[in-house]
Write a structure and sequence with these properties.
globular; single chain; Rossmann fold; nine-stranded mixed beta sheet; 5 helices
């Protein structure tokens, strides 16, 4: 019996990141599997493509689905779909009149579906990632590793099965409205969030930015940031997440 084709809907777009770089890296990871065929979009509006997909993978920042798209996303996961959400998918970013970075709670349905909302991060830094559930297949055999990235300080929603976590207590990067993060609680780095018959797998690291990705706020950004994308551990998590989302380790 021939293995069936697996259709992926890949949404990559938004603001303040090098989406060309991330898109290429994720497509290379998807392309390692001959069975996976990919429909690429810059936003969530193609509900027909979403409805026909076997799984959804997203790398976005400040990309705000409208009510119809949110209905489609919720229905997709509820009926058993798997959504592999990367980095800024859970972000809403607005600049205040004082030039600060606000993260308003203006899309509660989306954040409840994702299981978290990004609020702030410290300056890009190295931090240790620890395995929260060593028995889970998504992280089985992994040991604590160190990456350099944006350490997400998020507001969590609902019951989340945390697979990887880190620790941080202190201030967010200067400029965030919500800057005080002094607590000893673990910060989820990768987790599963169930909704209906399906699940979201969220992986928070993966920042990348090039010289031209802060326009119109800044015409030329001085640094090229690749962060966790330069870490073999991150690519291993990406590979495992794709196998999970596409159900490649299941029969059929």
């Amino acid at each position: 019996m021939r293995p069936r084709r697996i259709d992926a809907f890949f949404v990559c777009g938004g603001r303040y990141h090098d989406f060309d770089y991330a898109r290429l890296e994720i497509l290379k990871a998807l392309g390692a599997h001959e069975r996976i065929r990919v429909h690429v979009a810059g936003d969530y509006r193609d509900l027909a493509a979403l409805g026909g997909a076997d799984f959804l993978i997203t790398y976005t920042c400040d990309l705000r689905p409208d009510e119809a798209a949110q209905d489609g996303l919720a229905a997709f996961v509820e009926r058993g779909g798997r959504w592999f959400a990367l980095h800024g998918t859970n972000s809403i970013i607005e600049w205040t009149a004082e030039g600060k970075v606000a993260t308003p709670r203006s899309l509660p349905r989306l954040m409840q579906l994702l299981g978290s909302q990004f609020i702030a991060h410290p300056p890009i830094m190295e931090f240790d990632v620890e395995v929260s559930d060593p028995a889970h297949p998504l992280v089985a055999g992994l040991e604590r590793f160190r990456i350099r990235d944006e350490l997400y300080l998020s507001e969590m929603h609902g019951a989340n099965h945390v697979l990887l976590h880190c620790h941080y207590s202190g201030k967010a990067q200067q400029g965030f409205v919500e800057e005080d993060w002094h607590s000893d609680e673990a910060r989820p780095v990768m987790y599963l969030h169930a909704h209906g018959e399906g699940e979201v797998l969220y992986l928070t690291p993966g920042h990348c930015r090039g010289h031209y990705d802060m326009q119109p706020l800044m015409q030329y950004y001085p640094d090229v940031e690749r962060c966790a994308w330069e870490s073999p551990a991150y690519h291993e998590l990406l590979r495992r997440g794709i196998r999970w989302a596409a159900r490649l380790d299941e029969a059929g």
